[in-house]
Design brief:
single chain, 10 helices, 6-stranded mixed sheet, alpha/beta, Rossmann fold, elongated
Length: 348
């Protein structure tokens, strides 16, 4: 009887020890899980703090004010002249500095100039690319240097590099020109198109124009790269008009291109070709107001509006505010019928 009792007591003791051991393991596991959760929470808080600190750092104004960089594809183009002037006025009114460069449509030079501005210690940059793809090495340098980018007027090929884009609805600027042509030439005809494939803004305008006239009886007899340049356009058009004297219209990707086409058409003695541009520049509006020009219309945009919006977005970003990826600026058609509403002595 004693042996049986002893055996039972030993069994109970062993069972108790076993249960105690299991309990210890469960408690240890629970404690480990709790510690891991606490560690994860701490890591998450640390990451969030780092993000918050980074956002706060963006908003810290340097002693002596910000130094901004500015680059556009062609600083002599009247559109960019007024755009740069407006950005400079807005920036300097805030006590800040603007360093401007002009690559003259040379993307290799633009990359070198941006590298120089980084060396000079710019805090942020307003950027319009000479080439959408070709500018990417400069964007890599700016990203590595931690310099915010406001991309304006012409999109870079990869918008993930930029903090925001501000620009005209370029597709619509070309589309409204095409609509006007269809209304004025219901029977269609031969068309000359002067584009610039490396400039996204002009490509968008050309696509809009071509979509508007698609299926309306028009034939593109020539489509060539005029580099967005008056002299280049004039030279190209002189040859094209000799071979296509029956062209009913010429579309230029911007106003300087349209003015080059106008000079070539005038030299060829043409009197009934319709010429369209895009910009709404004072020179084109003066042609429209004259009443006897071959310039028929321009898909107008506002460099002043683009400039002011670019500056507004830049300062909002630097203040740590959330900004949109894109800010479109309206475009519309100006012809001889409504040019008086916009004037000829300045930009709208």
């Amino acid at each position: 009887m004693k042996k049986k009792l002893l055996s039972v007591l030993l069994s109970v003791a062993m069972l108790s020890a076993l249960l105690a051991g299991c309990g210890s393991k469960e408690t240890a596991a629970e404690e480990t899980a709790t510690e891991e959760t606490a560690t994860d929470d701490a890591a998450a808080e640390t990451a969030e703090d780092a993000v918050n600190e980074a956002e706060e750092a963006v908003g810290e104004r340097p002693e002596g004010g910000y130094t901004f960089g500015y680059t556009c594809m062609d600083g002599t183009n009247p559109f960019f002249v007024i755009l740069e002037q407006t950005i400079r006025e807005e920036v300097e009114a805030n006590g800040d500095t603007l360093i401007s460069t002009d690559p003259a449509n040379d993307v290799s030079l633009q990359i070198t100039q941006i590298e120089d501005m980084i060396t000079q210690g710019i805090d942020a940059i307003f950027l319009n690319p000479a080439e959408a793809e070709g500018i990417l090495p400069a964007l890599d340098m700016l990203k590595e240097a931690g310099i915010p980018i406001i991309n304006f007027d012409t999109e870079v090929a990869d918008l993930s590099y930029v903090n925001s884009y501000v620009g005209s609805d370029n597709y619509n600027a070309g589309y409204v020109c095409g609509e006007d042509l269809v209304a004025k030439c219901p029977d269609g005809g031969n068309i000359i198109v002067l584009d610039s494939p490396t400039m996204n803004s002009i490509t968008d305008r050309t696509n809009g124009f071509l979509d508007a006239i698609d299926g309306k009886g028009f034939t593109i007899v020539a489509q060539q790269d005029a580099k967005g340049n008056l002299e280049q356009s004039m030279s190209i058009c002189e040859d094209l008009l000799q071979a296509n004297s029956d062209a009913v219209a010429i579309f230029g990707g911007n106003d300087p291109t349209a003015l080059g086409a106008l000079a070539a058409a005038n030299a060829a003695g043409m009197t009934d070709v319709l010429i369209y541009g895009v910009d709404g520049s004072p020179d084109i509006k003066a042609e429209l107001a004259s009443g006897d020009s071959l310039i028929e219309g321009t898909g107008a945009q506002s460099p002043i509006g683009i400039a002011k919006k670019s500056v507004e977005v830049m300062y909002a970003y630097l203040a740590g505010e959330k900004v949109d990826d894109r800010y479109p600026v309206d475009t519309f058609l100006i012809t001889s019928d409504n040019v008086a509403d916009y004037g000829t002595d300045g930009w709208q």
